[in-house]
Structures are given as structure tokens and as C-alpha cells.
Amino acid sequence: xxNPIEGEIFxxxxxxxxxxxxxxxxVRARLRKRLDIKSLRVGHAxxxxxxxxxxxxxxxxxxxxxxEELQAGVKEYIAHIRLGETTPSFDLETxxxxxxxxxxxxxxxxxxxxxxxxxxTIEQVPPAFSACKIDGKPAYKLARKGREVEIRxxxxxxxxxxxLECGLPQEPTIAIRVLCSKGTYIRALARDIGEALDSGAxxxxxxxxxxxxxxxxQCMTVENLLNMLETEDMVSPDRxxxxxxxxxxxxxxxxxxxxxxxxxxRQRARKPRQSQL
Length: 277
Hints:
The chain has helices at residues 20-35, 67-71, 107-117, 139-144, 186-196, 222-231, 237-270, and strands at residues 9-14, 42-45, 52-60, 75-83, 85-86, 98-99, 120-124, 133-134, 137-138, 154-166, 173-180, 201-211, 214-215. It folds into 2 domains: 9-71 and 216-235, Pseudouridine synthase, CATH 3.30.2350.10; 75-211, Pseudouridine synthase, CATH 3.30.2350. Helix 1 (20-35) runs parallel beside helix 6. It is elongated, with a radius of gyration of 26 Å. A hairpin with a 2-residue loop joins strand 8 and strand 9. The protein is of the alpha+beta class. The strands form 3 sheets. Strands 1, 2, 3, 4, 7, 10, 11, 12 and 13 form a 9-stranded mixed sheet that branches. A two-stranded antiparallel ribbon has the order 5-6. Strands 8-9 form a two-stranded antiparallel ribbon.
């Protein structure tokens, strides 16, 4: 039986072109309707760009307090990158703005650059088209208005990076697997890989395949989750509140017992022993 008010954690395979917030909005609306309540806290742990797919963690109720903990887990991505071209957003959200030679790049060069420059602790400047805050506003809102955005570099860790596919020398395309820490922008990684290869690059596809111990094959589609939320038995708001109050009472009783035991221990310690009288 689900208890969305006390807190549930759902793992969703986010579909292409959906924002993470749109997924949250759909889940919140379905639960509010099902429980017949006006408000319910629902949030996600770890934003995925609209053009990315894969593992998205959605928390409800009091489980939203765990968001920071959940998004801190190591993440794995499969990224497809096109060399020789750049875009302002570093992905397909914007049009190509510049082209660069790529014919000089070999598979061996790519593998060397990945291992020597993009493994371990690195500095990365997040994209202007990102949710990083500039004077309290998301950078992407300023970037989409054509305003200059300056973002400070961030320190992050890439535990593993592996070349999975290489279209060179026929096609300027590569696919990589990245195991990295929270805060890594794979779009920015694509940009930096292009520069390290004396060319340009942008992301053409991205899939998050793991967060912590949760892999994408363990995730539900949005449609399946919404159907489950329509049919699965749920703890009513009244019962959820009763259970919360009972837990609070039991917690208070346990604290009272602990204080009483502590007081009795101090009293015993103050009493003189018979041999001292």
C-alpha cells in the first residue's frame, strides 16, 4: 500500500523532450486527484535536460527531505557526441554556430584525451544554458534572452570514462560511458572534449543509466507510474495523519523513558555506598 503523504520514492525513465518538472507536475496532479487533497509536496532528485532520457528520482511527501541525499549518488551516463561542430547550448537545443576541422582526430587520440584529461578530479565550467543561479536567476533564462552569462568553474569527480563507439575516421561521432559525481554537466564535458581534441563538439543524445544503486532497467515509464497511481491502494490522508501522530507520541514516550532512566542513574550515582557510611 502506497503512502504518498508520509513519503514514496519513484524511479522513472524520463522520456525524451520532457522536462524533469513536467514529470513532477504529472505525478503531483495524479496524486492530488486520487487523494482528494489540494497540496502535496513532490520533487525530483537530479535534473535531467529535456533532450536527455533515463533515471529520474521523484519523491513525495516527507520523502522530499531525502532529495539532497538521493541526488548525491554516483551517476552513470551514455553520451553521444558529434565532433567538429559546436552549439551555444552544447547540445541539440540550439543550432550549430561554428564548425571545426575533425579529420585529424583518431580513435587513439580520443582514448588518450579521455583518460589523461577527463578522469579523476577536474574543473568544469557549467553551460550558460543550465539551472545554475546567476544573481538568483537560472542561467538558462538569461542565456535564452541573449544575455552574457559568466559561471564560475566547479570541481567534480569523474570516476570512469570509457569510449564505447567511434565513427572515426569515416564519421566525426563518438559514444562514451561516464561515471561521475553530482553536478557534472555532460554537455559541458562534450564541449571540453572537443576543445581538448583541437576541434569542437556537442552532445547529440544523452541517457542516464544509473543513480547510486538504481539502474534504468529498474525504472518505470511515466505512463506506467501514472496508471499505478490510479489503481494502487493508498493510505488516506486521515490515516496518514493518525499514523504520524502515533509515531510522534511513541517518540515522545521513548524520550520520556530515556530521560527518566538518565535521572534515576544520576540519583543512584549520588547515593553513598554502604561501605562509605
